[in-house]
Write a structure and sequence with these properties.
Strands 1, 2, 3, 4, 5, 6, 7, 8, 9, 10, 11, 12, 13 and 14 form a 14-stranded mixed beta sheet that branches. The protein has a single domain, classed as Jelly Rolls. A hairpin with a 3-residue loop joins β7 and β8. It contains one helix and 14 strands. The protein has about 180 residues and is mostly beta strands. It is globular, with a radius of gyration of 15 Å.
Length: about 180
């Protein structure tokens, strides 16, 4: 399914083969999908809600690297040395260490609320309203290359860590929560 400005607020079955970014989001219903984006491969689990975007390698640089923003779901990412693909959630930004070797990593985000999100809650997430659904993100490298984690919760928000795995949790709203790293 997809939803956005083009669908005028009505979730619509997606029948194409090319995903676009900027004006809508996608949601999977019990069927995973493999996406080649910016030279990297993202394999998303069967219930992911996500949109496509870009990220930068450092503050002040242009956002030109592929990024998937994920409200909920799981993703296995295979990056290349030339394109450093990332995943962002409410809890942080996850990707390869800049200028490192190609790698693979796994990210899963679970929401704290157990009821299904309403369409309005999904639209609010996509529009980046302040009151986002809180949850937990786990990330781990699937290779010997370390994972780059830029936390949006815990201590030293925005300061990157190079880790084997991490667990980040929002407890009330953006910037409030905990982060545990395994170096």
């Amino acid at each position: 399914m997809w939803n956005g400005k083009e669908t005028k607020g009505v979730a619509t079955k997606f029948t194409g083969t090319v995903l676009t970014y900027g004006t809508h989001f996608y949601e999977l219903h019990n069927e995973g999908v493999k996406i080649t984006f910016g030279g990297d491969t993202y394999t998303l689990g069967g219930n992911a809600v996500f949109d496509l975007g870009c990220s930068a390698l450092a503050v002040g640089q242009r956002a030109i690297e592929p990024r998937i923003n994920m409200l909920t779901g799981s993703a296995t990412v295979k990056t290349t040395h030339a394109h450093e693909g990332s995943i962002s959630t409410e809890e942080g930004l996850f990707g390869q260490v800049p200028q490192s070797a190609a790698m693979s990593y796994f990210v899963v985000r679970q929401l704290h609320q157990h009821s299904a999100l309403s369409l309005q809650e999904k639209v609010n997430w996509f529009e980046n309203y302040a009151n986002q659904p809180i949850g937990m993100t786990n990330v781990k490298t699937l290779t010997s290359v370390l994972e780059n984690v830029t936390p949006y919760v815990g201590t030293k928000i925005g300061k990157c860590r190079h880790v084997h795995s991490a667990k980040l949790v929002t407890t009330s709203s953006w910037g409030h929560g905990t982060a545990v790293y395994h170096f």
